[in-house]
Amino acid sequence: MSVFRILRSSRHARSYYDPAHHHGFLTKTNLAKFRYKQIRNNASSPSSTSSKTRMWHSLTKRWEWTIPAGVGISILAIFQWRHFWRHSHAEKDPSTLGPINGFMVDCYCCLPLRITSRLWGWFASIPVPLILRPTFYGLYAKAFRANLEEIDLDLTTFPNLVEFFVRPLKDGVRPIAQHVDIVSPADGKVLHFGPVTSCRVEQVKGVTYSLRHFLGDPNWPRSTTSLEKIENDDCKYLRSLLKNPTNHLYQLIIYLAPGDYHRFHSPTDWQIRFRRHFQGKLLSVNPRVAGWLPNLFSLNERVVYIGEWAGGFMSYAAVGATNVGSIKVYCDRNLATNTRKWPKEKRCDDASLGCTNMSKGQMLGEFRMGSTIVLLFEAPPDLKFSLRRGQSIQMGQPLIESNRIIDERLQSMTK
Asked: H or E segment at 75?
């Protein structure tokens, strides 16, 4: 029932009454003759202007276009997008783009990205003919700069594009750094890293997301530190995450491009206590989008795993994105992402995983195309990263400088 009537322009045949022939109606067959005769009569009439006006109104009444509401919204959003890129920041430096207004965010969020992502997941699962696989995957690798020399199997063994996305690597091509306690969990690009000092956390430089919305209510086992003297709610929430009140909270964001290795691993030795799944949107997490869309990670579908490592609290989040068919986590068989929308009253889905022990470098899960890993962890205040923003990083590379954090608690926990 809901349609956009953009122009009255869809050809619907109608009957027209001929005043000169009151005994009959004009049908579609002789409609052209009638129009020709009417134009000739109007041309010789002294009131030709008013007659032409009436004729134009009569003509436009016969035209009508009807399109689905979703398509109409998408068209409007695309036009808004074009307008934004042409006019929004013409006088500003491109490296300092700010967030866009709420109307354009609403237009972007109205796009049927969940449907298109599910369709893409279906399309990427279509079997590729055996004879075409080397050529097809070779073209994909060339377009997205994927390194085919690292693949452990022959290209003909991948039946479809999804299996090529999650391709295994040869042994030894991703060595795990042993001199540090925490390493990169995935291949990708470092968007942001550093200490978290408030509940507004930077996703890229100058653009933030809400930590409280990203993680949800902290109803998991946590520090018993007294928070009664802390008046600021944001500070109270941040402090409630820490096991040791003298420690700091740090974050790392890694973006996985379509050509990257799509499996993600454990960054350290830790215990996973439970999982929290937010359905959310499936907006693009491309660094350009993250640079102008605030709260991107809080809006998108994400799977957050909460646990504890040697330094204290740890949160490992796999964030969904446009055209990510699904997120698969090997120790969580009940997880199902990119499904039908939940009821409005359901915001998240929690699941207890007991005490699942993960070792540094152990395979944790896979993306069915590029997406983002957001790592939040507690550590001493003297922690120093060995990274720079925008650099490419590989799974297993060190994140911090060589300083040991492992204590007796972790050693007893891994026994």
From this structure: helix 69-87
187 is catalytic: yes
Q: How far apart are CA 351 and CA 276, in angstroms?
A: 6
Question: Of 248, 262, 265, 277, which one is the catalytic site residue?
Answer: 265
Q: Out of 74, 184, 266, 371, which one is annotated catalytic?
A: 371
Model confidence, pTM = 0.71
Q: Is the dihedral of CA 137, 138, 141, 144 positive or negative?
A: negative
What 3-state DSSP class applies to 109? Answer: helix
| Integer angstrom CA distances of residue 287 from 135, 191, 389 | 30, 7, 12
DSSP 320: -
Assigned token pair, 165: 């996305």
The secondary structure of the chain in percent helix, strand, coil, rounded to multiples of 5, reads 30, 25, 45
CA distances from 399 to 135, 194, 241, 290, 330 (A): 37, 11, 21, 22, 24
The pLDDT tens digits of the residues spanning 257-315 come to 888 999 999 999 999 998 999 988 888 888 878 877 888 888 888 999 999 999 999 99
- Distance in angstroms (rounded) separating the CA atoms of residues 62 and 64: 7
Catalytic residue among 181, 187, 269, 332: 187
Residue 315 designated active-site: no
